[in-house]
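Listing S7. Sequence submitted for prediction.
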Amino acid sequence: MNSGFRSVISACAEVAARKSLYGGRPLITLAAGTFTLAISLASVLAQQPGNQGAGISMAASDTCKPGFVWREAVKSDHVCVSPQTRARTRAENETAGQRAMPGSDGCRQGYVWREAVPTDHVCVAPQSRAAASDDNHRAAERSAGQTAGSPIRGPGARPAPAPQPFPTRMPNTAPGSTAGPNRLSSPPRAPNPLTSGRRSTSGRELTSPGGGAPLGPAVPRPVNLHNTMDQYECNSHGGAAAAMVCKLALDSGQVALLWQWNGSTALGINGFHVYQVDGGQHTLVGNQDNGTSQTFWTLKIPPGGYQGKCYSVAAYAGSKESDMSAPVCIGRNAVVHTVTLSSQQTRFADHSRLSWLDNPDQITSGGGIRVGFAYRTSKHLLGDSSANTIQRSGLLFDVGALRNTTIRDARLLLSVSTSTVGADYHQDHYTSCVAQIGVGNARWWNFNDWIEGAVMLKPGEYQGPDVAYDVTSIVQNWASGNPNFGFVLLGEEENLGAFTEKSCQTTYDGNARLQVEYF
């Protein structure tokens, strides 16, 4: 290679590294199932005579190794991260106002400062802050001008020992926050919307290869998922790149999944995850990482063939996912149905304890949905006192039509009206204080006393105002013939003997719904 051409190639490489034109990914990728053709910039350069062993200089003091790009949480943030992390960071910056407390740089409940650099007060899920800290710790090993163990020079990067596992609890350190520790948990079986730090506006917990967090309700899920063995239809979902893949796969007896996605390219979607979902599983079987231009995936023939296998698809950006598509089941006559049920019965029960009374406990009841707790104290010379209240609600749905069906997914949908939150008892209209979900053990709707039940799920508090709780396991039990005494909704805690200032109480509107996908 002559020196002039080598200079041109070097300049292009530097632009690619700085601007993440390719983000370290292949220049050409022919998507899907089994067959991939990839040609990377690095491999092309390495094959040129005179380049072996010489390398290409890219202002090594402030550039990233191949596969990494500047994070740019702020303009001067040159910590090297994956392209997916930069895309996530950019999206967090653009939507920061949705997670901040109005009129301050404090965060809403469930969110914390990202602190990619010391002045970074963008409110994010706790996992994102932990990831930013981990990226700072690993900055040296990703920099083209440094080796692992050398000083970290990027803004916000601070020397530290090797990264530790993510904490299971992390305090909300944002000034003015009245929330207690943010609860984190391992992702459960299946995602639903958009979900939340792991609390989302829909309440769905997400599972993805990166410990997926939610993309948010503004990101549409894939639709019209179906399977085909028609090469021409397959080609139409991926252009020229799909033609070779579809022909090779379909000629070998494989099946192609096809779908549509109607979102904007400005959302920065990296591609789609394909999951196998029959039998209650949620197993990643495909990663289409060519953006939104290719909406197909060829499936390897599974053990035992395709009969009865069900699949679903989610769009993803970095470690975040959209809601799942409606599933498709191959080789099965049954069709996946969706039904939305309205509650037949709702009732709340309020148990209060006023410590200064001879008979301190009182229970009242009424129609509607109220859940949570409020603890108040009074300190004076004649003796301290407390006024504590806990609330539960019961909801009954008629699920008789689901008897002997397989429940693919079930979501309890609630809408927040007003909540009282924190030690200052401030009000908002988005915090959902339902943190535990159980099943009733009697016909509570016929009485006015306390609502008893067995706790089955502990999703934690969510951010709304519209929230969706995964209750698939409970509805499947009812569909299998177990007695249905409805849901019992509880708050995070029920301690009538507490002596503290603390609250999370929510009144929901009366339009509770149960949305079920079944076959």
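Caption to Listing S7: primary sequence and predicted structure tokens for the chain studied. The chain has a mean pLDDT of 75. The two ends are 63 Å apart (CA to CA).
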